[in-house]
Specification:
heterotrimer; A alpha/beta; B mainly alpha; C mainly alpha; B: mainly alpha; 12 helices; 76% helix; globular; disordered N terminus; C: mainly alpha; two-stranded antiparallel ribbon
Chain lengths: 309, 267, 262
């Protein structure tokens, strides 16, 4: 735990009755960093987020945010945080602008300042032309962008985003990612939870992989892939006769084989070369795909399960 | 062979019965509190208004229209209860089903038509009204406030009164985007009717020029019908008028409810 | 030595919750204005009808019309209903449906601020309604003494007591169906708190029970104010309502904390 960390946690535990949602995790996040928590639903990400955003108290362990203890300094810490919760909690009856005006008041920001910042933030969120629309009439992607704009009203030093793009269509996701890039470039520290590996690869400088309340790996996305996976992956699907007859025959060509219900994953250095070798054995896969290794493969390797069921 | 199979599959029930069963089945999961309230509320109202206020009235005025205050007020409470049940079942629940929970959207994804939903829903409200009417009639009899065999029609009158409110309000609620206007309906329609339909005191208390205004209130006709049934005397002319007003509301309400719901679910 | 447990009633920041509710309701101002008509209708109905049927009642040392007797009780009832309905329906919606408070908790506000802020709002609403009710009462001649003006703080105190308890109660509701249960509690309180007829009409053993009802306490307090009959019993009613409100607020804060920050 370095003293100049923006956020550090040691031995963090969250227990609900008999269920241990977070089971002793250590993290340290530096200023200006973009940090990810990657894991499937139920891995303990949201519980962790609620603790590090100074909302819920840890059952055990300690956290320091901006060097302060959230148990005793919750309001002071939250004044410097921005939080984008998993579900949008906008005031649907109010207009887009009024949502921002009202939320800013919770931070005791003078109305004039809020209005000025809100105008800029709506520009940033590409919602300027919707400022007077009722929130209820916005699309899912717009609501998400408004929630992000809202979380920036108090000019936070740290922005915490819980599953920022879940439920959005691809276009809306890319727009959102673009906005988050800009924040990162402007020096805002980001903490992101996601169960999308592409999102984690795109946005995070460093991440931890969570499973069943624990951290199972930590590092930069590329480093994790290099450490836990091969350069390329060959995905094979077999037809009606199934893949079982081929597993033994093929596995000698790969460093590692994962048998999924619907396909085989062959972890290899050169996918095309191995595919030729597979064909040479007489196996006739219905389809074959060569791709680069991703965090999904890291997760599969570490937990034996896929990220999105 | 072919024909027998087809005949075997012919529905003897109209399609809307499925909507009725749906509402019934839903109710079965949540019935407890409302069954108690169905039994308890009229009893409490009668005890409080009939006995308590009745005591004050008899000490000062004696009889009201030739009856004790309890007897006078009891049929009116039946009419009010029927109106309340009809109204409460057709505002928020209907708006919820077309806007928030969208259960009606799910229902029209099956072979049900919007018209079937309206009929099924109102049939279900009718069933509840009938049983509430039975309970109320027994309660009123228990207080000794009935003196005619015509009182046996009270459950049916409860159905008519309740549906006369439920149908038009369902038509209205199915066009709404928010519940903001419901408060105004309560403030400017339901509560004034509750207070001014000659329910808690006889029509004779009103100055002459106000009486036609009272007669404009649908609930007044319900109260008058219930009172006639409980006491067993009526003029044919006014009975026809009361029945026409309530029946007309039900008929017109039903028609526009079908139309509005179809339009709402199509959009 | 500390006898009482340390109590937190929220900070100045709770006023932001009040501000939020005012902003939301500004879009529904018509509803607040139309609230004026409800007491008017009730009082008119009494004046037209039951006044003549019931005649005069003795209250303390004087004879009063039925409307004068009932009006303060109805003011108490409307303060109770307004506070309970808003605390239950709107807070339930914000707590369990819209998750409004989750967003608030990401700001410097604390759970105690939320509970206290909702109570502030109940007081603001309560005073608006009570003012319009009192105006109707005075115009229609149903007030029995100049002390009737004390009914305003009395009604606000009633709003406080019921709103706090309503906030606490709403945390136990699981779904909209549970509101039937609420009606089950509210209606007997409404009918049997000696609001429509004097407590002396009840048999002796029941009178003790009626006196326990918070609505009886409030109605008796307001009737005393309206008829200018203020005495030691007024103090008892006030203490009852203050204690009820404080307990409700502490329980509400505690329950909010359990639900919102598990």
């Amino acid at each position: 735990m370095t003293s100049d960390s923006l956020l550090s946690a040691r031995g963090l535990v969250k227990q609900f009755g008999n269920f241990r949602a977070v089971d002793g995790i250590d993290v340290s996040i530096e200023r200006g960093e973009s940090f990810g928590f990657l894991g499937p639903n139920g891995a303990g990400k949201t519980s962790t987020m609620r603790m590090i955003s100074a909302v819920s108290q840890p059952t055990a362990g300690e956290i320091r945010i901006f060097g302060l203890n959230p148990v005793s300094h919750g309001p002071e810490i939250r004044a410097r945080l921005g939080v984008v919760p998993q579900e949008d909690t906008l005031e649907l009856e109010l207009s887009v602008m009024n949502n921002l005006l009202m939320f800013g008041r919770y931070f005791d920001i003078p109305r004039k300042v809020i209005r000025q910042r809100a105008t800029e933030l709506l520009e940033f969120a590409q919602l300027s032309d919707r400022a007077d629309d009722k929130c209820d009439n916005l699309s899912g992607g717009m609501k998400r962008r408004l929630t992000i704009a809202r979380s920036l009203l108090n000019q936070p030093e740290l922005l915490i985003l819980d599953e920022p793009t879940t439920g959005l269509d691809p276009q809306a996701r890319h727009l959102l990612w673009d906005r988050l890039y800009r924040l990162k470039r402007d020096g805002v520290t980001l903490i992101i939870t996601t169960h999308y590996m592409d999102e984690a690869e795109q946005l995070c400088d460093r991440l931890v992989v969570m499973d069943q309340g624990r951290i199972v790996a930590e590092g930069a996305p590329r480093a994790l892939i290099e450490q836990y996976s091969t350069r390329e992956v060959l995905e094979l699907r077999f037809g009606a006769e199934g893949q079982e007859p081929y597993v033994d025959r093929i596995s000698e060509y790969a460093e590692r084989v994962e048998v999924l219900p619907d396909r085989l994953l062959l972890y290899v250095h050169d996918g095309d070369e191995v595919l030729r070798a597979v064909h040479a054995t007489g196996a006739t896969p219905e389809s074959a795909l060569v791709r680069r290794s991703s965090l999904e493969d890291v997760f599969l390797r570490l937990t034996g399960r896929t990220l999105v069921d | 062979m072919d024909r027998t199979i087809r005949r075997g599959r012919t529905r003897t029930w109209p399609r809307w019965h499925r909507s009725l069963w749906y509402h019934g089945a839903f109710y079965l999961q949540t019935w407890r509190a409302s069954v108690i309230s169905t039994f308890l509320f009229p009893l409490l109202y009668l005890a409080s208004m009939g006995l308590g206020v009745g005591h004050l009235v008899s000490a000062h005025t004696g009889l009201v229209e030739g009856r004790s205050y309890l007897r006078f007020v009891a049929p009116g409470l039946l009419a009010i209860t029927a109106m309340n049940l009809g109204e409460s079942e057709s505002m928020w629940p209907v708006l919820g089903a077309v806007k928030w929970v969208r259960t009606y959207h799910a229902a029209v994804a099956t072979p049900l038509e919007p018209e079937d939903i309206v009929l099924g829903k109102l049939a279900w409200v009718g069933v509840r009204l009938f049983f509430t009417g039975v309970v109320l009639t027994i309660t009123i009899a228990f207080f000794g406030a009935l003196n005619s065999w015509w009182a046996l029609t009270l459950p049916l009158l409860a159905v008519l009164i309740g549906l006369a409110f439920a149908a038009p309000l369902m038509a209205f609620a199915s066009t709404r985007e928010s519940d903001a206007s419901f408060t105004s309906i309560y403030r400017f329609l339901i509560i004034p009717m509750f207070l001014f339909s000659a329910t808690f005191y006889p029509m004779s208390q009103y100055p002459g020029y106000l009486r036609p205004v009272v007669q404009l209130m649908p609930l007044y006709h319900g109260v008058a019908l219930a009172r006639s049934a409980a006491f067993g005397h009526a003029e044919v002319g006014s009975m026809v008028l009361h029945l026409t007003v309530l029946g007309g509301m039900l008929f017109l309400g039903l028609r526009s409810a079908k139309k509005n719901l179809r339009r709402r679910l199509a959009s | 030595m500390r006898i009482f447990p340390e109590l937190h009633f929220g900070s100045r920041r709770s006023l932001r919750i009040l501000e939020r509710n005012v902003v939301i309701y500004r879009t529904q101002w018509l509803m607040l204005v139309s609230g004026f008509f409800e007491p008017l209708f009730y009082l008119l109905s009494l004046g037209i009808g039951l006044n003549h049927l019931v005649g005069s009642l003795s209250a303390g040392d004087r004879l009063v019309t039925y409307a004068m007797f009932v009006a303060p009780g109805m003011l108490a009832t409307s303060a109770m209903n307004g506070a309970v309905i808003d605390a239950l329906f709107n807070t339930f919606f914000k707590l369990k449906v819209a998750h409004t408070y989750d967003a608030v908790l990401a700001t410097p506000l604390d759970v105690n601020d939320i509970a206290l802020g909702e109570v502030w709002w109940a007081l603001v609403r309560g005073s608006i309604y009570a003012t319009s009710f009192l105006t109707c009462m005075i115009i229609l001649g149903d007030a029995g003494s100049p002390w009737v003006l004390l009914c305003l703080p009395g009604a606000i105190l009633t709003s406080f007591a019921f709103a706090s308890v309503g906030l606490a109660a709403c945390t136990w509701l699981r779904s909209w169906q549970d509101f039937d249960t609420v009606a089950l509690i509210q209606l007997p309180i409404f009918l049997f708190s000696a609001t429509f007829f004097p407590i002396t009409l009840y048999p002796g053993w029941l009178q003790g029970l009626v006196r326990c009802s918070p609505l009886y306490q409030s109605a008796a307090l307001l009737r005393g104010f309206s008829l200018g009959q203020i005495g030691p019993s007024s103090a008892v009613h006030i203490i009852y309502l203050v204690v009820m409100g404080l307990i409700g607020l502490v329980v509400a804060s505690h329950r909010f904390r359990r639900i919102l920050t598990p």
